[in-house]
Amino acid sequence: MASSPFIIVAIDGGAASGKSSSSRTLSERFNLLHVDTGSFYRAITAELLRRGVKAADLAGVRAALADLRLGTLVEGRSARMQLGGRIAGDEIRSGEVNDHVSHFAAIPEVRTALLAYQRGQADVARERGFRGLVMEGRDIGSVIFPDATFRFFLHADPGERARRRANEGQQDSIAERDRIDSSRKTAPLACPPGAVSIDSTHLTLAEVVEQMARPIAERLTT
Ligand code: CDP
Ligand code: CDP
User: Fold this and answer.
1) CB-CB contact of 53 with 64 (8 Å)
2) Nearest C-alpha to atom 10 of ligand 1 is from which residue?
3) Best residue among 101, 164, 170 to mutate for probing ligand 2, ranked by most atoms within 8 Å of CB
4) pLDDT at site 222
5) What is the architecture of the domain spanning 7-220?
6) Regarding predicted confidence, which is higher, 88 or 71?
7) What is the mean pLDDT of the chain?
8) DSSP state, 141?
9) Which residues pair with 35 in a beta bridge?
10) What's the predicted TM-score (pTM) here?
11) How far apart are CA 83 and CA 95, in angstroms?
């Protein structure tokens, strides 16, 4: 019997559309390395803020990016980014990072700095013996892995997404982040042609995961 193929699952969508919850579930079910690229943009944002660099100061951003040493630590089934040997903590979910992350993420140099690193996570997954990779973000199915085995794009009404975030006790202006993420010139948030679009507004998490898991399970057993 042929060994099962290495698969790449790309999940994109706006804030609180259900990317992290569904990715984590799929990573457990199919033994995939889980990569939350939003946490990468958040960690870089927290680091640049710590250094006092403003998103409007392009020369300062460039200088700081040139100085960053990126590494990966695999914890369970999750890939964590190391910056200068250190893993970012809860500060990446702070209100301050929520307010600034989309401004830094709109800068082409910031995205370029993360491009090869994100693609390299497939090598990390292979080296560690995972059956594949599930990567979530805004441009995974459009830019990072346009040839991914599966590409999903999650939608949900803005009101429902705000309710979900509030239920988590988070202060987060998700409408503003979505606006900036969708309107930027480089790698804007949009459902790419050919991706499977899922509207999760009236679906439970389990129902969303089932829609994704069915074709993956088929692929892994054939
Ligand atoms: O968890 P939530 O969906 O609210 O956000 P996140 O996935 O942690 O992403 C935080 C921010 O990082 C987004 O609002 C985008 O500005 C940026 N991001 C991006 O530009 N591209 C990605 N692939 C992932 C995140
Ligand atoms: O990663 P992203 O920001 O896209 O969303 P998430 O962190 O996976 O989900 C945000 C919250 O919505 C979590 O508390 C999920 O349990 C919840 N959720 C939900 O209630 N119904 C869904 N269909 C998907 C997520």
Assistant:
1) yes
2) 38
3) 164
4) 67
5) 3-Layer(aba) Sandwich (3.40)
6) 71
7) 95
8) I
9) 135
10) 0.97
11) 21
